[in-house]
Specification:
Elements: H1 2-7, H2 10-30, H3 34-54, H4 58-69, H5 71-78, H6 80-88, H7 104-120, E1 125-129, H8 136-139, E2 143-148, H9 151-157, E3 168-172, E4 175-181, H10 198-209, E5 213-217, E6 224-228, E7 231-233, H11 238-258, H12 262-271
Parallel strand pairs: 1-3
Antiparallel strand pairs: 1-5, 2-4, 3-4, 5-6, 6-7
Length: 273
């Protein structure tokens, strides 16, 4: 091992570290999104191409060669949103940074109290926490708030007389970035029907497309649910919301260094029901 290191000059080591960092950031960006599935398919195709180069599969190699020549163009087309977000993430701060004297625990407490209060009045709401994947494109179509997270502000946003109560609130960098944001709707199929209406489909949709955490308040049932990775964890109390969000935020900070979200969803699995 020391002989190999000796052969590498200092610039070669820097080169390797830069490439490693780029690959790490790309994997962090697409983790938990549909782009990860697309990338898996591309890797399978590339693996097939390499295999056809080793064994005498002339036709397969020819077809794969045609695909390989357009590989960069295909990548840009498929990942245009992700590439745009990757550039905008340079220098991005942690997901729940303190804002104007507010600690992360204070932000979570304000959200939890708001959700329970809204549920008691059968007022529907969607409160989205941005994590590693930027939600800028959803914030852009909403109404800019850029306000301190507080129960009073959240309650006023989701009042039925408010023109932006139907959309979602997105919390970014410890502040309410925007309200009235429209989220992608998850599609129900015969095997996995989504309970509830449009609000539930929106909560599941954004959690599938990104790694966001969502607090969902059901207008019909008057209950509060936590939504993550496409799963709805219903009937949460104030203390449960505070504990679970706090745990997820701490795990998310650790996972950003370890590139591993398995622990998060193992814990969520134990909370189901």
């Amino acid at each position: 091992m020391s002989e190999i290191v000796g052969l590498l000059g200092p610039w070669a080591i820097v080169d390797i570290l830069i490439i490693s960092a780029i690959i790490y950031q790309i994997m962090s960006l697409i983790r938990g999104t549909k782009a990860a599935q697309v990338l898996t398919g591309i890797l399978v195709i590339l693996g097939t191409f390499l295999f056809s180069s080793v064994v005498p599969l002339t036709t397969v190699n020819w077809v794969m060669g045609k695909f390989y020549s357009s590989f960069l163009v295909i990548i840009v087309i498929l990942f245009q949103d992700e590439l745009r977000n990757a550039l905008s993430r340079i220098g991005k701060k942690p997901i729940v940074s303190a804002s104007e004297g507010q600690t992360p625990s204070r932000i979570i407490e304000e959200v939890a109290k708001s959700a329970i209060s809204l549920a008691s009045k059968n007022t529907g709401a969607l409160i989205v926490f941005e994590r590693n994947i930027l939600l800028s494109r959803f914030i852009a179509v909403g109404t800019t708030i850029d306000g301190v997270v507080s129960k009073e502000l959240l309650m006023s946003i989701f009042q039925t007389t408010s023109p932006i109560h139907d959309g979602a609130v997105i919390i970014q960098n410890g502040k309410i970035a925007a309200a009235g944001c429209f989220l992608p709707l998850a599609k129900s199929d015969g095997h996995s029907a989504i309970p509830g209406g449009t609000r539930h489909r929106a909560a599941v949709g954004i959690s599938l497309e990104t790694d966001a955490l969502v607090i969902l308040v059901s207008e019909e049932k008057g209950t509060v649910s936590l939504v993550a990775d496409g799963h709805i964890y219903p009937k949460q109390t104030t203390e449960q919301i505070k504990v679970k969000l706090s745990q997820l935020m701490r795990i998310d900070s650790k996972a950003s260094h370890e590139s591993n979200l398995k622990t998060v969803f193992e814990r969520l699995g134990r909370w189901r029901g």
